[in-house]
Amino acid sequence: MLDEATRSAILTLRANGNGSRRIAQSLGVARSTVRRVIANGGAQVPPLERAEAAEPWREQILELQARYEGHLGRVHEELLKRGATLSYPALTAFCRRHGLGSSPPLPAGHYEFAPSQEMQHDTSPHQAKIGGVLTRVQTASLVLCYSRMIFFQCYPRFTRFECKAFLTQALAYFNGAAATCMIDNSSVIVAAGSGATMSAAPEMVAFAERYGFVFRAHKKGHANRSARVEAPFHRIERAFLTGEDFASWADLNARARATCDTWNTTFSNKLHASRRELFAVEQPRLKSLPLHVPEVYQIFTRIVDAEGYVHVNRIRYSAPYRLIGRSLEVRETLDRVDLYEGPRKVASHARAYRPLDVRVTDPAHRPPRGAGSPPAQPAPEEVQMLQIEPRLASYLAGLKQQVGQRRTPLRRLLSMLQEYPRAAFLAALDIAEQYRLFDLDRLERMVLKRIAAEYFIVPFELTPPEGTDDE
Q: Looking at the domain that runs over 298-365, which CATH code has it been given?
């Protein structure tokens, strides 16, 4: 069928007095076609009118679309059962031409961003082979909207801890932050609401304030609003994760950073430059990083178990054997687990992810082979009593044989030593030690009896007060 330009040329040549043979030879078309165009007299292409195989089944198609909620495969199967002979492509073409069950797609929008105006953050689940095992990973990505500079990392999970740690790494990679960070209403960041009414969690708001940006969320269902960060996920899966075997999580993320360096320096036909070249324009406009960026970690309180380990996320990390039974503060970062006793670090381990329930042991945390059990450390109450009165050593040794590791009797004995007169207390203690008496209730009664006898003596002859009759 001739297009409008050819039809216009035929009519123009005819108006100049040329015959149909000459026009046909000049334009390379059939003489019959030239005659039809001249007879029609117009350059518009006439509509193609021919019977459609699905037209007799229009009502049934509408009925079945409503029943099967627009599933044309089921509609076609039911039409064949009712005697229709049309093919599935004929059915879909008929529905598409007449707008049955679908509407034509709307044109996609286009967003323009000034340098440092916005960055976009999102996550996506993928599969990666780590140590020969296919593992589910959460890929987190941050993209600067103007230069398209990208930074991504992979994690076994993605909580607020991983989110803050990732954003800290990404902003350090970019050496700055854009004014706004667009997200997709993720519950990791969002505390309430969505879109324009979104409220970020207080700890995430405080994190953003440290770097001088704010979180914004696009309207639900408007994923195109964050297309700068959404689009690269397919490339990450196909061009980075697929077909690769990573030795460990550290190897995975180290190679991810190297891939970011490669992609950011590669020339892009779409951008007509590399991302690094555009970043050279954007970077001076980014908000500067704080003078000090503290390491992101989460804190747990754990008691060292009888085997000398603390439990964190189903992984056991060793602690010095002398701390068995003590409560320690555990600080977990992305790559390390540190143990603190008060303000002092007592152990540090590389963080383990898999397998679960594994033991991570530092040989220095175990007593030397053949050394036997370590000597028991004296309780603080015992040390304090011996500093006050060294003569208590023999009685304390016998008392500890009776009460074992319990510290309550030691606290009570220390209290008696500090509160009662020293001479009366030591005299009663000598008698108690002589008879191997370690019942502290009886010891205290002995001390009180001696105090009553020596410090509260009542004279036998009393002088009556003046002015009273004394017969």
A: 2.40.50
Give how far Cα 301 sits from Cα of 329, 339, 348, Å: 5, 10, 15
Q: Give the 3-state secondary structure of residue 210.
A: helix
Asked if 360 contacts 316 with a C-beta cutoff of 8 angstroms, the reply is yes
Fold exhibited by the domain 118-285: Nucleotidyltransferase; domain 5 (3.30.420)
Confirm whether 4-40 and 118-285 share one CATH topology.
Answer: no
Q: How many residues does the chain have?
A: 471
Angle between helices 380-388 and 393-403 (to 10 degrees): 160
Asked whether residue 471 carries a pLDDT value surpassing 60, the answer given is no
- Predicted structure pTM score: 0.62
2 near 30, Cβ under 8 Å? no
Look up residue 357 and give its two tokens: 């329930």
Write down the number of H helices and E strands in the chain: 17, 17
Look at residue 471 and give its three-state secondary structure.
coil
Q: At 421, is the secondary structure helix, strand, or coil?
A: coil
Mean pLDDT to the nearest integer, 244-250? 91
CA distance linking residue 51 with residue 364, whole number of Å:
88
4-40 folds as Arc Repressor Mutant, subunit A (1.10.10)
Q: Over the Cα atoms of the chain, what is R_g? A: 43
At 343-399, the pLDDT tens digits run 899 999 998 887 788 899 999 888 877 665 556 678 888 888 888 888 888 888 888
Instruction: Decide if 126 contacts 139 (C-beta within 8 A).
Output: yes
